[in-house]
Amino acid sequence: MSLVLVVDKGGMPKDWVNFEMAACYYAKKKVLWELGEKMKTMFGGHNEHGEQSRIDISCIIGVSGPLLGDKFYNQSTLFADRMTLYARDWHICAYCGDEFSTSQLTIDHVHPKSRGGGNQWANCVTACRPCNHRKGNRTPEEAKMHLLYVPYAPTVHERILLKNRKVLADQMEYLKASIPKNSRVWRHAA
Q1: What CATH number labels 82-143?
Q2: DSSP calls for 161-188
Q3: For the chain, how long is the longest CA-to-CA vector?
Q4: Following DSSP, what letter does each residue of 12-49 receive, concatenated?
């Protein structure tokens, strides 16, 4: 299913939303501007004159503020979900270097959570179950397991791109404009 790219009034990407959530932005008059093709037309009820309401939803909408609360505007160093982390790491285990399906992967905290490590992008890597089990509650150095790549916090634009598997051409062009050419996400966007 295609999703709508929601950006703030300055053009900074915030999240992907489904058509129903996008319609809420329109209905609450929070859409300031639109870019790209119209993706869908949603129809509502009829007024006293028999006219049916309709909302034409564009693939990129600039909004005036959060519909979902302040959390929407404060996405920062914490990773959103495991699928986005796996995409950042190309589904490759940070320890053995093999590529795995999603069901065979886990999240490893380089500095273990039980020892104060958090869910920050720079502390989390993709690991296969055997490697994560072998590393256990130790740092890579203590486990004598070397990281094959350095975890990093993707930019907002990279994070948004990694989060959606079905990016439309207009959305891709919008996001590509602000992602460095040497970014690791280009393997996914090709």
Answers
A1: 1.10.30.50
A2: HHH-SS--HHHHHHHHTTS-TT-TTHHH
A3: 74
A4: -EEEEE-HHHHHHHHHTT-EEEEEEEEEEEEEEEE-TT
CA distances (Å), 37 to each of 3, 5, 22, 61, 149, in order? 12, 12, 14, 11, 38
Joined together, the tokens standing for residue 39 give 């993706």
Tell me where in the chain the CATH 1.10.30.50 domain(s) lie. 82-143
Cα–Cα distance between 173 and 148 in angstroms, integer? 31
What is the value of pTM for the model shown? 0.74
pLDDT (tens digit, 9 = 90+) per residue, 97-152?
Answer: 999 999 999 999 999 999 999 999 999 999 999 999 999 999 999 999 999 999 99
CA 6 remoteness from chain centre: 12
Helix (H) or strand (E) holding 189: helix 186-189
